[in-house]
Every structure is written in C-alpha cells, then in structure tokens.
Design a protein that fits this description.
The protein has 460 residues and is of the alpha/beta class. The chain has 2 domains: 195 residues, Rossmann fold, CATH 3.40.50; 208 residues, Rossmann fold, CATH 3.40.50.10490. It is 39% helix and 14% strand. Strand 9, helix 13 and strand 10 form a beta-alpha-beta unit. It is globular, with a radius of gyration of 21 Å. It binds 5-amino-5-deoxy-1-O-phosphono-D-mannitol (M6R).
Length: 460
C-alpha cells in the first residue's frame, strides 16, 4: 500500500493511475473533511441552519428525499436512519419519477435533494416542485456553487473535493455520511436518542477511519483482483443484500455496469427466491452480503438453492468468528472486511464493490474514468475548479485538521493533513465535475433566486 504525504492511499504516479481508483482511495479524507464541518465540541452536531433550525424542524411531519443515480442510492440509505432515529416517515424517490404521480409533499415536508454536481436536471426539477408545494428544501451537494444550492433554502455540503472520474465513489460515501448525520439532527429536534446520542455520534465519527481500515486491509484487494479475474468471462451477476445493505447492492451493481460493463443487478436477498432464482446457474455468479449471524441464518437456504444450481457464490463478509460458518463454507470465495459497528457497515461494505468495478474494468481493458454511461452534455461541472478551491482550500487554511477518533483508541487521532494550498483532494488537472449534466439549466428552471447558505461551512 503506497501512501502520499497527504495521507491518501495509492496516489497516482505520474498521472498513470485512473482517477476512479484514486478517488476510491480518497474516501477516508473526503469523509473526514465532510464530517469535520458538522462536528462541534463534546459531540455537538453543528447542523442547525435553516431549514434545520429547531422551529422549522418541529413543523416537519415527513421527509422526502430525491436524487439520481448513485446519489439516489445514498438517498436510500437515509430512509432507514431517519425513520429509525427520528421516527419521521420518509419517502425516497428517483428524481426522474418525481411529479409523475400524486405526491404528499407539502408544507409539512422536509424535501432533500442529493447531488454531487448540483446540476442534474431531474434533481433540480424535483426540488423545484417540492418548493412550489411549500416544502422546506435542503440540498446535500458537493458543488457549493451550483444551481441546486441556489434553489434550496439550505445546503449541507459534502466536502469530497474535486471529482474527476465520471463514476461516483467518494461523493457517494460522503453523501451517505451527511444523510446519516441529518437523521441524527432530526432525532435531536424531537428530543429522541438522548441516551444513545454520544454512542451514535461517536460511531459515525469513526466512519473515515473504518473506510481507511477496509482500504488498507491486506487481504481485501488481492481477493478482489482474484474475483475480478474470475468474473471477467461472465456476462451477468446478481448482488444480494438485506435491509441497510440493500442500497449498497444497488450501488455496487450500478458501478459494475457503468465501469466494468457487466450486467449486474442488485436485489433484496429475500426476494430472490420469488422468480429471479430461475436465472441462477453456472453462468451467473451471485455476490451476497452476509455479516450478522441473523443474516447468515436467513441466507442459508438461499445459498443451498444457489449451490444446487451450481451458481458460483461470492460472499462479502467480515472477519471474525460467526456462530454458523456454514454459509462461508458454501461460498466459492469470501471478500473479507474488517469488523465494524453495524450502523457503519453499509458505508464500508460498498468498498469491495467499488474495487471490484475498478479491477474488472481494468481486466476488460476499459477506460474506467470515462465509461460513458452517464448522460452529460459538453459543459460539465461548470466552475468546478474554482468551486473545489472555495470548498476545500479555505477549509484547510482556516481550520485545524479534523481529528477522527480511531476505534478502541480514545484520543488517538487520524489526522487529515492541513496546509495544502489547493487541498489534499485537489490533485489533478482535469476539471470535469462528475455528473454535471445540465450545465446549470435545470429543466424546470429550478433557480428560485433564493440563496442557500452559499455553501459556506458551518465552522469557523
Ligand atoms: O451529480 P449528481 O449526483 O446529481 O449525478 C447523478 C448521477 O448522474 C450520478 O450519480 C451517476 O449515477 C454516477 N456518475 C454514477 O457513478
């Protein structure tokens, strides 16, 4: 594992490594920066700007979250946590479906639009519709200077830095983290989670470190490379998951399609036996998440069915003993992750699938940085270079490096290097922002003229 002076893993040498893998490896830093702007002293959450001020939040009865593509998968992760933490009914909808049916979005709704670029036309249109229905609107966005931030009443920035690869990775995990914190903020506004608060927030503050641990795990990448070689001759695969991990299966499948051009379908494991099982066989490898003993127990009978059909089985699981090793013994191979608290599993579990998309794409001789599967006009990520500087540069210059507590080692910091003029995540000449589909022209003219918080971070 090679590290650069900024703490990024596997930095590109002479520009020879694709941005896609570079950005996968930048995730710990991207998440640490993103997190730092919301973490105050003594586990305070700094997330009370409008529309997330207490008064507005008291009037909120439901949450509506919308996005496209990978950002939509991040949005899906939020539903579980908002409903669990804050007990607020939450609907997550692809932005392209918004407005196609009767919707319950109204003035009691917090409408959240999630986007890396802040320029996806459907996302802009969905936010605009929610605004016209009287909802309180919030953008979760990486491009501070974008039409989405202009259109929303407030903005939560992901500080993932410049995005060069069209396939989104570091923006995705950063969005998932911000949305998890949003769930905590909503819970706080309802006086919920008072006892569990410290534990929850401490747990989320460890996400960057957990992702770093997964990326540095000695046996993970070599095994992923083996699996990539194995999958190379196949045309299709399914990725099966349950509950909180389902969005990761969908996201992994999107990455495999986009970057490695293999037909991959993410599917709820419990639904697979209701028809799609007919597809399982020697020519269709199955990738399955299995972490807890409960998941193992639930997946065992399905694994028997898969093996009876001679379908190759690849398990994504975590190190450490399980009560029941039966599932692992049926797998053709296991991709091992470090043990992480269950809440953090989704954000860590996506890592092997991102790596798999990269290595399979490479094995197939594909241009992993420009897979060409995202609709993007000529103008992408307008102003992204300046924007990245205004997001990352001043952050680094004006604040101490975020300190993330390492697991089991209170007080032991994982520091993100400070002092770089342009920022550790800002390291290449390409200025294409990911997902900048619209060049600022939302199809519904989503510029409300209302200024958000201008993308300014919440901390000094
Ligand atoms: O910039 P956005 O997040 O709004 O883009 C949405 C999607 O086009 C984008 O996430 C796309 O799915 C990814 N490039 C796929 O990796």
């Amino acid at each position: 594992m090679v590290m650069d002076g900024l703490g990024n893993m596997n930095p590109p040498k002479n520009g020879d490594r694709p941005y896609f893998i570079k950005e996968i490896n930048e995730q710990p830093n991207a998440l640490a920066y993103t997190l730092a702007q919301f973490m105050g002293q003594n586990f305070q959450l700094k997330m009370n700007r409008p529309p997330l001020d207490d008064q507005t939040l008291k009037s909120i009865q439901k949450t509506y979250i919308t996005a496209c593509g990978t950002s939509y998968h991040a949005a899906m992760t939020a539903r579980y946590l908002i409903e669990e933490f804050a007990q607020i009914p939450t609907v997550v909808e692809p932005a392209s479906e918004c407005g196609r049916h009767h919707s319950l979005v109204d003035e009691t709704t917090l409408a959240v639009a999630v986007s890396q670029s802040g320029r996806s036309p459907d996302t802009l249109a969905a936010l605009d519709l929610a605004r016209r229905r009287g909802a309180h609107t919030l953008a979760v966005v990486n491009e501070a200077d974008s039409p989405l931030t202009e259109a929303a009443m407030g903005t939560l920035l992901t500080l993932a830095g410049k995005v060069h690869s069209k396939a989104s990775t570091k923006a995705f995990t950063s969005q998932s983290l911000v949305l998890a914190l949003l769930g905590l903020r909503l819970a706080q506004s309802r006086n919920l989670l008072r006892k569990e608060w410290r534990q929850e927030i401490e747990s989320f503050s460890r996400v960057p470190e957990m992702i770093r641990e997964a990326l540095m795990k000695k046996d993970l990448e070599p095994k992923v490379i083996e699996v990539a070689k194995f999958l190379n001759p196949y045309f299709q695969t399914f990725i099966l998951a349950r509950g909180h991990l389902l969005p990761m299966a969908l996201e992994g499948a999107l990455k495999l399609k986009e970057v490695a051009k293999i037909h991959a379908e993410g599917y709820p494991a419990g639904e697979f036996g209701h028809g799609p099982l007919a597809m399982a066989g020697p020519d269709t490898p199955i990738i399955m998440f299995s972490f807890s003993d409960e998941e193992e127990a639930n997946s065992l009978s399905l694994a028997f069915e898969l093996k009876a059909r001679n379908a190759p089985l690849i398990l994504i699981t975590e190190d450490g003993p399980k009560k029941d090793q039966a599932l692992a013994s049926m797998a053709d191979t296991c991709l091992p992750l470090p043990q992480v608290p269950s809440r953090l599993r989704p954000m860590v579990a996506v890592i092997p699938l991102q790596l798999l998309a990269f290595h399979l794409g490479q094995a197939r001789g594909l241009d992993v940085d420009h897979p060409g599967g995202t609709l993007q006009p000529e103008i992408r990520g307008l102003g992204s270079e300046d924007t990245a500087k205004s997001q990352i540069g001043p952050q680094i210059k004006s604040q101490p490096a975020p300190q993330i507590l390492a697991p089991g080692a209170p007080g032991s910091p994982v520091s993100v290097q400070a002092g770089s003029q342009s920022g550790p995540l800002d390291s290449g000449p390409d200025q294409a922002g990911n997902g900048g589909q619209a060049g600022g022209q939302g199809k519904a003219g989503a510029r409300s003229g209302k200024k958000g918080n201008g993308g300014a971070p919440d901390h000094p």
